[in-house]
Design brief:
The protein is of the alpha+beta class and 107 residues long. The chain is built from two helices and five strands, in the order βββαββα. The radius of gyration is 14 Å and the shape is globular.
Length: 107
């Protein structure tokens, strides 16, 4: 009985601008891929990563890139407002890290 909510061990995700105004770097303060990078230029490329798949479900997300300690999200166009996308992206990243699932599943 009673539902338990996931306890977010309060992650503070920072964002950093990139040279491309349509891309924003999200830094979760935890290792992402540690030693490598992975690029997901299309939703089809995201089959190897549960997190990338979830990020592509957010309307307006065009591509996703994982770095050693950051996740860069690129939006479809300039008309889209980061302030509308950010809350969904934050929530997706936080829920994912809280779930403890692997970021990338090997083939």
């Amino acid at each position: 009985m009673g539902h338990h909510h996931h306890h977010h061990s309060h992650m503070f995700i920072q964002t950093q601008d990139t040279p491309n105004p349509n891309s924003l770097k999200f830094i979760p303060g935890k290792p992402v891929l540690e030693t490598r990078t992975m690029d997901f230029p299309t939703p089809a490329a995201a089959f190897r990563s549960p997190l990338a798949r979830q990020l592509f479900r957010i309307e307006g997300v065009k591509s996703v890139f994982f770095g050693p300690d950051s996740i860069t999200v690129t939006k479809e166009n300039e008309e889209l407002d980061w302030n509308l996308l950010k809350p969904d992206i934050y929530a997706t990243i936080m829920d994912f890290f809280a779930s403890g699932l692997p970021l990338v599943t090997e083939e």
